[in-house]
Write a structure and sequence with these properties.
Length: 505
């Protein structure tokens, strides 16, 4: 009789049930593993032999055939080791029986211990949706898996514990944790807004960006504080919700970036890839595509310092995720969609030498060099960046001032959270959370303006040749400014301030 053991595979964030089928035939001793597995799976043969023998169990002296079904689905990694070993030991009558509602995940060491694997939380959550009631995971993955709801999760340290549990001789450790217990913690940030001298205009722009989840581009001379402002931005973002924390943990688990000491992602991500990053590194990729930087920045910040130094092709791949809040990765075998709802913060110099428009140092770039440098950021990409500001060099008074800024990140964060709460209440029936997510239809519904404001916007359209997308984004910024100012409707002053933050004046 063929023994069937349940395991699972992930394609992107989608979980597929894998049936590990084990049978033994009268033939020369060997192990044959079929079912479209990768190198790690084919190498499981030696791990299985020694793990079973070193656990003091008898390995079959005939041919063992293991099929990973369905056969048309690519399988990767060593997470199927435990399921294969359980199937072999059941076939050899060492394990009495394996319940059909129990799944197995884990890599085997040669001594029979069970090593942790990636993707445990999304797999366990997905197995529950597929009808599985129990899952045995590596002990080191138990804390991560404990955040999955509705399913019984048990941790095992070695193969012997799994055998004894299945034979009813012992109990495995179970754990259940509530994400809310971890999300109320206060964090210390390296940079507080009060530590940044001057730049009140830029600070206000970042406050608006945080309140409405708007994208920002800062242009200024070297040393004006652009990078410091960007790195302080995380300190004014609202805390993660329970659903956001679980969503992020699943993404980081798939990417293999979960630390066993901190199994739940509780801080909004801040990703700052180097300008040498490839388009695959930014969007994600591989034969079984893994998340890229824009997905790892989901619900957080993607900071591109020296933005024009990135390859043009890398910057252009951001256009679709910035508009749709997800990235689609197409391969011959499958198409994968990853979430990519992030706030983009870009920083750049105004010209190649960095001193165009500086009050103290003269620019040495030609007009051709300046135009070529600025052309690295295409019009369609700039159209998707809501807030565009200049960050000038600090004055002598600001630079030498010993007294820190009175406004702290904590105070700004309170205003940001209040504005976000207003948006959550307003859009509770629309399926969105922030003003940046407004569609053209919703803009017409929630961004109504009076005739005076319309006249002001008409003037801006004619003067600066605004596109329809730029017009919509000005209305979104105006809606956020109105929320920060506790205005129920968008006022003329909100529109005027929004125009200031589009780099138009």
């Amino acid at each position: 009789m063929v023994i069937k053991v349940i395991s699972a595979a992930t394609i992107g964030l989608e979980v597929h049930k894998i049936s590990v089928e084990v049978d033994i035939t009268n033939s020369l001793p060997q192990i044959a593993i079929v079912g479209l597995g990768d190198t790690a799976i084919s190498e499981a043969k030696e791990r299985l032999k020694l793990a079973i023998k070193n656990s003091n169990y008898q390995f079959p002296s005939t041919k063992v055939v293991i099929n990973l079904a369905p056969a048309n689905l690519k399988k990767e990694g060593a997470a199927y080791d435990l399921a294969m070993a359980a199937g072999i030991l059941t076939k050899e009558k060492i394990i009495n029986d394996i319940p059909i509602d129990t799944a197995f995940l884990g890599e085997l060491s040669l001594d029979g211990s069970i090593r942790p694997v990636s993707g445990v939380l999304p797999i366990v959550s997905g197995l529950y949706e597929l009808g599985i009631k129990k899952v045995i995971v590596p002990y080191d993955n138990l804390s991560e898996a404990s955040f999955a709801s509705g399913i019984e999760v048990m941790g095992a340290k070695n193969l012997v514990e799994v055998v004894e549990y299945l034979n009813g001789n012992m109990e495995l450790k179970e754990l259940k944790q509530d994400p809310n217990d971890f999300l109320n913690m206060e964090f210390e940030y390296d940079i507080d807004f009060k530590d940044i001298k001057g730049q009140s205009h830029a600070k206000k722009a970042l406050e608006i960006a945080a309140a409405g989840a708007h994208n920002v581009l800062m242009s200024g001379t070297p040393g004006s504080g652009k990078t410091m402002l960007a790195r302080a931005f995380s300190s004014i973002l609202p805390p993660l919700t329970k659903n956001e924390a679980i969503e992020l943990t699943k993404i980081y688990s798939i990417a293999g970036l979960i630390d066993s000491k901190t199994p739940l992602v509780i801080k909004r991500p801040f990703r700052a890839p180097h300008h040498s990053a490839s388009s695959v590194g930014i969007t994600g990729g591989g034969s079984n595509p893994k998340p890229g930087e824009i997905t790892l920045a989901h619900r957080g910040v993607l900071f591109l310092d020296e933005m024009p130094e990135f390859q043009r092709s890398v910057l252009e791949v951001l256009r679709q995720p910035l508009e749709e809040n997800f990235v689609t990765i197409s391969r011959i075998q499958n198409t994968i969609k990853y979430p990519a709802n992030f706030i983009l913060i870009g920083a750049m110099n105004p010209c190649p030498c960095g001193f165009l428009g500086d009050r103290k140092k003269q620019c040495i770039c030609s007009e051709f060099q300046i135009n070529r440098y600025k052309a690295k950021l295409s019009g369609p990409l700039l159209d998707r960046i809501d807030i565009q500001i200049n960050v000038p060099r600090l004055t002598d008074e600001e630079l030498t001032a010993m007294k820190p800024d009175n406004v702290t990140s904590k105070e700004i964060k309170k205003r940001v959270i209040n504005a976000r709460q207003i948006q959550l209440k307003r859009y509770e029936k629309e399926g969105i959370y922030t003003n940046s997510e407004l569609t053209p239809k919703l803009i017409n519904k929630y961004c109504k303006i009076d005739e005076t404001s319309k006249s002001m916007l008409k003037g801006a359209i004619n003067r600066f040749n605004l596109s329809a997308r730029s017009y919509d984004r000005i209305l979104k910024i105006s809606r956020t400014i109105a929320d920060l100012n506790l205005h129920e409707n968008i006022l003329n002053e909100d529109i005027a301030q929004a125009l200031m933050f589009r780099g138009l004046n």
